Each structure stands twice: as structure tokens, then as C-alpha cells.
Amino acid sequence: MKTKRELVIVGGGPAGLAAALEAHKNGVEDILLIERDEYLGGILQQCIHNGFGLDYFNEELTGPEYAERFIDELSDKKIDVQLKTMVIDINDQKMLTVLSSKKGIEFIEAKSVILAMGCRERTREAIRIPGTRPAGVMTAGAAQRYINIEGYLPGREIVILGSGDIGLIMARRLALEGADVKGVFEIMSYSSGLVRNKVQCLDDFGIPLYLQQTVTKIHGQKRVEAVDIAEVDDNFNQIPETKKTIECDTLLLSVGLIPENELSQQANISLDDITGGPIVDQSRETDIPGVFACGNVLQVHDLVDNVSEEAEIAGKAAAEFLLNETKDEIKQSLEIAPGKNITYVVPHTLNINANTSPLIELFFRVKDPAEDCKISIKDNQEELASYTRPIVEPGEIESVKLPIKLINISSDEIIVELITGGE
To answer: Given 89, 309, 317, 382, which residue has the most CB atoms within 10 angstroms?
Structure first.
């Protein structure tokens, strides 16, 4: 069966929900939202802790409450939703192959597509921890689902590897359920999660954080019995004489997230080697006209509030693509590149035309923690603007708003740099 749709959104998590609502608000009447799970909301449904919505709603909500705000609004709109449905292929002509138990295989020809597939966690195989293969080794997100949705306690003596936000939150969650959390071990010299999560989830509960340490081996046959821990040097080489063994029955992994871009690759969309997400302009349009990306499939965010705001950019841009018959001529196109002490910048390009917003927000991550520093925005001629920061951390996305009027007409590149006190 083959159908035609104006706009297809892949993913019914926070990004897909916000994008669908914004596209509808801007005049798109034919919208199909596809979600592979049995309910909308994505990962938010298992995030029962509070802290969501502080920026977007000016309220403190739990994950399900945050998702419910968008789901309730969606139910009042004429937006088609297909649950328990997988998009198994998409090509560069915006033809989607979709599979569900209810309808079988469908072919959907879309005029525009918004990619909002989210991200997944790195596993033990991704970081190659030696040892046996017992039960009790799982990602922090899997443990979160077990305890918050399925009602199972995943273990009683816990070691957590990695200080990502999910790992920090699960340290607190397991402690509240009576588990003995032996500690969180981080290979870097700093925590990779939000500062507020480190304080509220570890410090407030007396859970230790060990920096520049990692798991070197897993012991146990049927179930995890212990793990070996060792310190690492500045080049991440293990220091053998520091090895110690910690008895535990569960090892949780919070060692990074990977954007779900297998569909993007099938469509031959160009990806950023650093973020793992598509290369986009300020409207979140990829290098295939009419295909947009937003949320964690584009860059792994710290706050769901920022996911929703970015999705609204993509939803509005998709509406403009569909409803604007005469495309505005691009007057100037610039590359946006990470400079000194910056890991990546989103968006990757800036296409300026008559309707370009006077302020362009640039999102980026720094490579190392720094205090009393300056964000410098330069072109190939001079510094365009600078912004001071009392502190920056790699675990938190930074952003600045650059006025378009500051950009020189002859510029073809913008560079974002972090200038520290010693430079």
C-alpha cells in the first residue's frame, strides 16, 4: 500500500511531539506522527523524577507530566498518530517504508520529513570491558525502565560506570529503594552530567564520585560477583598498581548516548563525525531539501526543554517549506565551525535570506571545564562578538545568540572559540 502525506514525523518523543504541534500551528494540516512504542512520550515516560519544564513551562514537572502536556495538546489537533509502527527505510526522495502488525508494510511518499528518533545508550560492547558475561550488567536506562515501569529492582549492590545524567539519577533512585550504591566511577577528570544532578543525586545522598577511574574487568558466572577498578592517567592508560576489586551484584553503564541515525544514513544524509547527528542549517534542515532533524537525533541534549525548543524550530521550518511556494533566494551561506576548546557547534551552516531571523542561536559544547572565560565568535576577518561566562562544563550545552547584522557580507565562515584566562 502506497500513500502520500504532506509531513511525516519519525519519533513520538518530546522532539516529535513539539515538532508536530508547531508544524500544525503554522498551517500544516496533513501530519503523520510515527512512533515505534505503544505510547507517546518516548523516554520521558520512565523518567519519574522531577526537574523537567523549568525553562519551557516555568514549572517543575516529572517526565510523564512534561510529556502529558504535549500529548493532551496533540489530542485536540487533527494530527494522525501511528503507534507500534517502525520506519524501516527512508530514501533521499523522502519515500518511507513503514512496518506495523496492524497494517503490514506501507510505503509513504512524504513532501517533508522531520527526523526525531532520539538516541540510545552505549553498551558494554561499545567500550569493551573484559571479563565474563554474567547477568547484572546493563545500561542505566534499562535499569530505569525495570524499576520505574516494570516494577523490578535490578540489583542490591550497585556499581555505576560513567557519570552521565541517567547514571547520576539512577544512583539516587536505587539508593531510595534501599540498594547499596558503592560509587560512581568516571574515566574523565570531571563529571559528564549536569552539575545540579551531581549535587542532588550524589552529594545529597552521600554517594561517592571517583574521577579518572574505570572498570577494568567483570567477575562472575551466572551473576555479577565483583568488578575490578583502576585509576587512569591523563592518556586514559590504566595504572596497574591502583587496581582494586569491589564486590557487587550489578554494574550499570552510563557511558554516553548515540543519536539513532541509521535511517539518516539510509537516506544518504551527511552526518557530523562528532555529534553523530545530521549536518543542518539554522532551520534544522539537512542537506536533503525538506528533511529536517531535531532533538537527540541531532545532538544529545542535557535538558528536554531545549529539545522542545529545537523541535519547534524544525516544525516551523517544515511548515515554511511546505507552504512557501516561492523559495527565498539565499543571499549568503556560511560554514559554522568549532574553534579553540570547542567540541562541536550546531547548526553547522547559516543560510541568510530575506526572512532569516535577526538573531541566530548557536549551541556548542566545550572540551574542558573552565572558569572566568569568554566565548568568542569570529569570521575569517575579525571578532564579531564575545560573551563572558563564569564557568563552563563539557557536560552542559552552552549557547549564544549572534545578531545577523554583525556578519560581514564577505564572510564565508564563522568560528566559535573558548578563550580562557591564561590565553
So the answer is: 317
Reading the block at residue 124, the C-alpha cell is 558494554
Separation CA 301–CA 299 (nearest Å): 6
- Angstrom distances, CA of residue 200 to CA of 56, 173, 204, 205, 319: 21, 11, 5, 8, 40
Spatial distance between the Cα atoms of 153 and 159, rounded to a whole number of angstroms: 14
The DSSP annotation for 288-326 comes to STTEEE-GGGTS--S-HHHHHHHHHHHHHHHHHHHH-SS
Distance CA 399, CA 164 (A): 20
State pLDDT tens for residues 191-228: 999 999 999 999 999 999 999 999 999 999 999 999 99
Reported as a single tens digit per residue, the pLDDT across 16-48 is 999 999 999 999 999 999 999 999 999 999 999
Domain spanning 123-255: which superfamily? FAD/NAD(P)-binding domain (3.50.50.60)
> For residue 149, what is the DSSP state?
I
pTM: 0.94
Strands 137-139 and 250-253 come out as parallel
Span 328-423 CATH architecture: Sandwich (2.60)
In this chain, the answer to whether the domains covering 1-121+256-326 and 123-255 adopt an identical fold is yes
CATH architecture of 1-121+256-326: 3-Layer(bba) Sandwich (3.50)
Cβ partners under 8 Å of residue 202, min gap 6: 168, 171, 172, 184, 208, 209
Q: Report domain extents, the chain.
A: 1-121+256-326, 123-255, 328-423
C-alpha of 211 from chain center:
23
- Cα 409-315-104 angle, rounded to 5 deg: 135
